[in-house]
Write a structure and sequence with these properties.
heterotrimer; A: alpha/beta; FAD/NAD(P)-binding domain; five-stranded antiparallel sheet; 39% helix; B: Ubiquitin-like (UB roll); Fumarate Reductase Iron-sulfur Protein, Chain B, domain 2; 2 domains; five-stranded mixed sheet; 9 helices; 7 strands; 36% helix; 13% strand; elongated
Chain lengths: 666, 249, 229
């Protein structure tokens, strides 16, 4: 039976982390050398944790299913990383970052964790600069900032449109250094298939060597999961193709609670789906909404004409365009938060006003911005601001300087030139706020099993703010876990090296082997991919941007049926004991089925709308989300029991430092 | 559009490979990898063994793609990874030859999948700044000239895909190694260790069995991120000064 | 190994040797051309034979010439070693090779070098060997040297270039040299790390001019003798 204890330290909010750090049990250097830590995943959180733990003296084993730790999907983050540095002297502070994050998360995150995150955010920037991350600079050589995601201060640090890449390479290099020093043993092309519990503590993992297919046991004194989010349950998402939930899901099957699984973030500006073969979606940075105006035609006949190609978007006169975000939310306009912008796009498309063949796209138009920048530029150059051709060309240059690389990506994928014709965009799954439940130590409900980065649920509540994912991943890895892991390991200094000969390992290995064999032996007629695609559609339709009780019940039923068919009719070519990407996919999709079900259960139970979770039953007259603070100010931590009859545990959330308000962007 | 695909099939590292020909119906909106997905779906339908190829982010940044398309790493479009290449750049009736990256230091593991761990070992040899977590001074205490920062970023944009090695007639890893050397040497933080770094990275690069650079600049031409060969000259300079110019052995 | 052997056997060190010897040979070509252009003087070979005699007798020049031979050999041997290593580094070749990403000259430096080597063998066999080790050349008195008898290399050149096939061999050899230099000139600077946003374009242009003008200058000699003399 799970008992949730968040282990939040005593004291005032601002003192908790400082006090904790000076009172948490330490492990002496000579003992650290005897203690082994397994880190699964080498994205921002995993690589930074593995490197930092190794620097402290622990013996670290790190695992990635990629061919190199440099390829994790953290690399694809574009926009930036927040930090409460207040370099711009614009009134930013640790408290303000904390406050923005809690409010942005629609009051469904834990105050103490978020405050800690804001506190260490500044150290992350220092650390990354020292590692050689080439952040943007001002003329004087100081670090540059930009504002992001509609907050009122400029606290986002960035490296062009490739911030995630540069931060990950920084962490990868720190990890590489520890590998060369012999402090980290690196296992590339290894996928974790189970966590091994010995006497109630996580003591190792079962991993499959993806090259040879061998099922291997790896032991340590504790295990850290840095295995990312589960957005790929929707099949089409901005996640990388191989991102999956299996490591976290295996842990939850062993008894780790899964928290708020229905909290998924849908990003409003992605390139829309163009065909049935489509494998993934590409994000266009949120920063585009600073200058792009979102619209659809007012008239149905214009919509039809555009879909057929009879009319171009530029043929629609201003008076026949509906700039719906500006119309509905005059205060914030095109800059409303992600969840609001996404839902609004869905609404207009549901009305039949979507602007591509599938009817699932809206325009993001830069023509006004091009003219505006062009005019300003022309005036400053002393040229005639009424000369349309000149203004357009100057404006195009100005927009190119700001968004050049994003426009290039867009043109590469769609073949359309966004300087001349508006972009087509549509919301897509981007990030998952839910994840393994962890306490203040980042330890799951399984002793000795830690979860960091997107894999845990902790800091973003029901909605994540822009440029906060990178911050949380690195905060956990560099500055939080290296302290908090001591709370567990300080009690393990007398524990001898864990042997993989223990019966628990043998048993776990056998179970994994049986599971793989049973999948291989189905030898049905359908490819794994086709199941995944169908599973994704069910989730998108019934547990996507907006949800209702009937849909969730129906979705759950469809999902169960599909799962049954999967276990009867999936076809996996090849063998288990060889390099077999189809088998890898199959194990991941099998776990997505169960997770998907849990997401629906969670979404159904949460009778309120908050952040990324919008229940149609719970909205105001003008279709805005209605939170129920009285009944749902808690973390829903689910215990996966009896295969499909999960048990709910509640961690009440207490807000002592912020006042719960209704988000309004009108 | 109808395509004829000639794809390199090789069961494992030590087995012999050969080309196999497939014909496939594709559409112009597909990405190149989605075209391969469709092929694999078809192969699986016929209970065959799908073509193994490495891929992950499919947005041109993870560096997983490792195929040579009609003789060019990442295919015919400049500044584009295979995953960002779209079928509209091909014509109906085209024959497309798909091979793995070829280099002794990148042995083929299966079909189009190669082992690029040699790149990791080059970085492990010295492609980092030795700073432990927590030791960093305030970010703004290290001022970086905007131009240097730009140069450093241009070099740091490398995605480690190995197209430079694949494109180089000598299978040389100079562009990859030099991009890291240059990225760190342009920054004040990286200057402290620059001599040791370049020496160790070059030694490791040679040990892995990459070829010598003969300045054909095919690497730059086929690099999907436009990494400049100026970095190679910079690495040469760094190397000579660290070896001939340094007081140490 | 000491740092020096470590350095010279590293991939970058090997390339440095190619670059330095190459640059030396580039300088040599200018000197060689300047001397040989005296063949074009219409003075019955007096100036050229005087020059050739000087070059053959002066001890400092003799000493330098050994350095030149050594550098040529080093350039060739090192080039071959690198070529072999580079073939091996590729392993299995591509079924389709791409010719768009680099130039013919840069890809075929080894082949061009080999052609130049064969040309050099013919060239040296024809003149250098005959002057140094045989008595085939007639002796002529030179007024400026108080009537001293010297070998009439001018006449030998004149005879050789009256044969059309020797002229063709020379022209082909010089074409190979031109292509070799087309890539080699700026490549030597790149290998030395002498790269600069402002000056590299100048070096590139200079290299191309050099690669065309120097072989062209040499080519005037056989053409002059074949067509005009």
């Amino acid at each position: 039976m799970i008992k949730l204890d968040a282990k939040i330290p005593e004291g005032s909010l601002a003192e908790k982390w400082t006090k904790y750090k000076s009172s948490v049990d330490l492990v002496a250097p000579n003992n650290k050398r005897k203690l082994e830590v397994i880190v699964v995943g080498t994205g921002l959180a995993g690589a930074s944790a593995a490197a930092s733990l190794a620097e402290l003296g622990y013996r670290v084993k790190a695992y990635t299913f990629h061919d190199s730790p440099r390829r994790a999907h953290s690399i694809a983050a574009q926009g930036g990383i927040n930090a409460a540095k207040n370099y711009q002297n614009d009134g930013d502070s640790v408290f303000r970052l904390f406050y923005d994050t809690v409010k942005g998360g629609d009051y469904r995150s834990r105050e103490a964790n978020v405050h800690r995150l804001a506190e260490v955010s500044a150290n992350i920037i220092d650390q990354c600069v020292a590692q050689g991350v080439p952040f943007a600079r001002e003329y004087g050589g100081t670090l540059a900032n930009r504002s992001f995601g509609g907050v009122q201060v400029s606290r986002t640090f960035y490296a062009r449109g490739q911030t995630g890449q540069q931060l990950l390479i920084g962490a990868y290099q720190a990890l590489s250094r520890q590998i060369s020093l012999g402090n980290v043993e690196m296992f590339n092309r290894h996928e974790m298939l189970d966590v091994v519990m010995v006497d109630g503590k996580a003591r190792g993992i079962i991993a499959r060597n993806l090259l040879t297919g061998e099922i291997e046991s790896h032991a340590a004194h504790c295990v850290v999961l840095a295995t990312g989010g589960y957005g790929n349950v929707y099949y089409l998402s901005t996640n990388a193709m191989n991102s999956n939930v299996s490591a976290a899901w295996r842990a939850s099957k062993k008894g780790a609670a899964m928290a708020n699984p229905c909290f998924c973030q849908i990003h409003p500006t992605c390139i829309p789906v163009s065909g049935t073969y489509q494998s993934k979606l590409t994000l266009m940075s949120e920063s585009l909404r600073n200058d792009g105006r979102v619209w659809v035609p007012l008239k149905k006949e214009d919509v039809e004409a555009i879909r057929k190609g009879a009319k171009k978007p530029t043929d629609i006169p201003e008076s026949d365009r509906d700039y719906y975000l500006e119309r509905k939310y005059p205060a914030f306009g095109n800059l409303v938060p992600r969840d609001v912008a996404s839902r609004a796009a869905k609404e207009v498309c549901d009305e039949g006003r979507g602007v591509n063949k599938t009817g699932l796209a809206v325009f993001l138009d830069f023509s006004e911005a091009i003219m505006r920048y062009g005019k300003a530029e022309a005036s400053s150059l002393g040229e005639n601001p009424e000369d349309e051709k000149l203004v357009r060309s100057l404006g195009t240059k100005a927009v190119e300087a700001k968004y050049g690389n994003l426009f290039e990506i867009y043109e590469k994928i769609t073949g359309d030139n966004p300087y001349r014709t508006p972009m087509r965009i549509y919301p897509a799954i981007h990030y998952t706020m839910g994840g393994l439940w962890v306490d203040y130590n980042l330890e799951t409900t399984l002793p000795g099993l830690f979860a960091i980065g997107e894999a845990n649920f902790s800091d973003h509540g029901a909605n994540r703010l822009g440029a906060s994912a990178l911050m949380q991943g690195l905060a956990d890895g560099y500055f939080v876990l290296p302290y908090t892991i001591g709370s567990f390991l300080s009690k393990e200094i007398k524990t001898e090296t864990i042997s993989t000969d223990l019966p628990e390992f043998k048993q776990a290995r056998e179970q994994v082997r049986e599971r793989l064999d049973s999948l291989m032996n189905i030898q049905g007629d359908r490819s794994v991919e086709s199941f995944h695609r169908e599973l994704g559609l069910i989730l998108w339709d019934y547990c996507g941007m907006s949800r209702n009780a009937d849909g969730l019940k129906k979705g759950r039923k469809l999902l169960k049926e599909l799962k049954e068919e999967f276990y009867k009719n999936v076809f996996i070519p090849g063998k288990t004991n060889e390099f077999n990407p189809e088998l890898e996919k199959a194990t991941r999709v099998a776990d997505f089925f169960e997770l998907g079900e849990l997401m629906m259960v969670d979404a159904l139970h949460r009778e309120e709308s908050c952040g990324g979770h919008f229940r149609e039953e719970h909205q105001t007259e003008d279709n805005e989300a209605r939170r129920d603070d009285e009944n749902f100010t808690y973390v829903a931590a689910w215990e996966w029991k009896n295969e499909g009859d999960p048990v709910l545990h509640k961690e009440p959330l207490k807000f002592k430092n912020v006042e719960l308000k209704t988000r309004s962007y009108k | 559009m109808n395509l004829k695909l000639k794809i390199w099939r090789q069961a494992g590292r030590k087995t012999k490979g050969q080309f196999q020909t497939y014909s496939l119906e594709a559409t112009p909106e597909m990405s190149f990898l989605e075209m391969l997905d469709v092929l694999n779906e078809k192969i699986i339908e016929d209970k065959g063994e799908p073509v193994a190829f490495e891929h992950d982010c499919r947005e041109g940044i993870c560096g997983s793609c490792s195929m040579v398309i009609n003789g060019q790493a990442h295919g015919p479009m400049g500044m584009t990874t295979t995953c960002q290449l779209h079928m509209r750049h091909f014509k109906d009736g085209d024959t497309i030859v798909i091979e793995p990256f070829r280099a002794r230091a990148f042995p083929v593991l299966k079909d189009l999948v190669v082992d690029r761990s040699s790149f990791d070992r080059i970085i492990q040899a010295g492609g980092y700044i030795s700073v432990n977590t927590g030791q960093a001074p305030d970010g703004n205490s290290i001022l970086v000239n905007q131009d240097d920062s730009k140069e450093a970023f241009d070099a740091a944009a490398c995605i480690g895909c190995g197209a430079c090695v694949a494109a180089c007639p000598n299978a040389s890893a100079m562009l990859f190694a030099s991009a890291k050397v240059a990225h760190l040497a342009f920054l004040p933080q990286g200057k402290v260790e620059r001599q040791k770094r370049v020496g160790r990275m070059v030694a490791q690069m040679d040990k892995e069995g990459f070829g010598n650079c003969s300045n054909t600049y095919a690497c730059e031409a086929e690099c999907p991120k436009g990494i400049s060969v100026d970095n190679i000259a910079k690495m040469n300079r760094e190397y000579f000064s660290s070896s001939v110019g340094s007081q140490k052995d | 190994m000491s740092w020096i052997t470590n350095f010279l056997t590293s991939s970058l060190g090997k390339k440095l040797i190619m670059s330095l010897t190459g640059l030396f040979l580039i300088v040599f070509l200018v000197v060689h051309l300047a001397g040989n252009l005296q063949l074009l003087y219409d003075d019955n070979g007096v100036a050229f034979n005087t020059y050739a005699h000087f070059m053959g007798e002066n001890e400092l020049i003799q000493f330098l010439s050994f350095g030149l031979y050594a550098f040529i050999l080093l350039h060739i041997i090192q080039g071959l070693v690198i070529w072999v290593l580079n073939r091996r580094a590729r392993g299995v070749g591509y079924a389709v090779s791409n010719r768009k990403s680099n130039s013919f000259a840069s890809r075929q430096m080894a082949l061009l070098g080999l052609l130049i080597f064969f040309f050099l063998a013919v060239h040296m066999g024809d003149f250098w060997y005959k002057v140094k080790f045989t008595d085939q050349l007639t002796m002529v008195p030179i007024e400026g040297l108080d009537g001293e008898l010297v070998k009439d290399l001018h006449a030998r050149v004149s005879t050789a270039f009256s044969e059309w096939w020797i002229v063709v061999i020379y022209l082909l050899g010089l074409l190979a040299l031109s292509l070799h230099l087309w890539h080699g000139f700026q490549s030597a600077f790149q290998t030395l790390g002498l790269n600069h946003k402002k000056y590299t374009p100048v070096i590139k242009t200079l290299g191309r001019l050099y690669a065309v003008l120097i072989p062209l200058g040499f080519a005037t000699i056989p053409l002059y003798f074949y067509f005009i003399k």
